[in-house]
Specification:
30% helix, alpha+beta, single chain, 36% strand, 5-stranded mixed beta sheet
Length: 102
């Protein structure tokens, strides 16, 4: 995935928050299996390796709470519904919601 815009919000500006953020951004860049599994459970179309490779990320917003918990909102496009935006919300390392907008 390529990030076009990355917004970061941190409730706690300490060193632990920076480490958590760095690890989380790295994980987001490698969460292919999590995304494909959730997509395939939620939608009729199949998300395969070609689908993952087609993801064009337009916006990422990451929040790190002072508890160390993380939350991310991602807006992207894909090759299944190219005229729609795909909105994905993560609560930690779990996909919370995924839906098309448009």
């Amino acid at each position: 995935m390529i990030f076009s815009v990355l917004c970061v919000y941190s409730i706690d500006r300490g060193t632990n928050s920076i480490n958590t953020l760095t690890e989380y951004i790295d994980w987001l860049g490698h969460c292919k299996d999590v995304l494909q599994k959730f997509y395939n459970e939620e939608f009729e179309e199949e998300a395969d390796n070609e689908w993952y490779g087609s993801l064009e990320v337009y916006r990422v917003q990451v929040t790190v709470f002072n508890t160390g918990d993380t939350f991310a909102e991602i807006t992207c496009g894909d090759n299944i519904w190219p005229d729609h935006l795909l909105d994905i919300e993560f609560n930690g390392k779990e996909v919370e919601t995924m839906s098309y907008d448009g």
